[in-house]
């Protein structure tokens, strides 16, 4: 078999890992062994947390909608039920944004939901 000289590729691979590990604490930023391990963990965390971000935001939106709906004497589930009966099709992201940025518009929507419930 022919002789293989690996030093150029090996150095390039190590330099890439150490560049990715910039900003880490201790030996994780300067030692290839520890940097490689931390980079692997970091990629795992990033993948996991991209998946976890979606239900986390949904929970935040529901909390915001519930708080705004209670200011109009409706619970979250009453508010959502009223929206369905009134045929108002706004998703939670938009409703939460309205609750924070434009409370007057949210109040009008809450009144329509209340009217649809017959209250």
Kindly describe this structure.
There is one protein chain. The mean pLDDT is 95. With 119 residues, this protein is mainly alpha-helical. It is rod-shaped, with a radius of gyration of 26 Å. 74% of the residues lie in helices and 0% in strands.
Short description:
With 119 residues, this protein is mostly helical.
Q: How is the secondary structure organized here?
A:
Blueprint: H1 7-20, H2 32-70, H3 76-85, H4 92-101, H5 103-117
Which properties best describe this structure?
119 residues; mainly alpha; 5 helices; 74% helix; rod-shaped
Structure summary, number of beta strands:
0
Helix content: over 70%
H/E element order:
HHHHH
Shape: rod-shaped
Strand residues, percent: under 5%
Structural class: mainly alpha
Radius of gyration: 26 Å
Low-confidence stretches: none
Count of runs of 4 or more consecutive helical residues: 5
The first-to-last residue Cα distance is 86 Å
Mean pLDDT: 95
Largest sheet: none
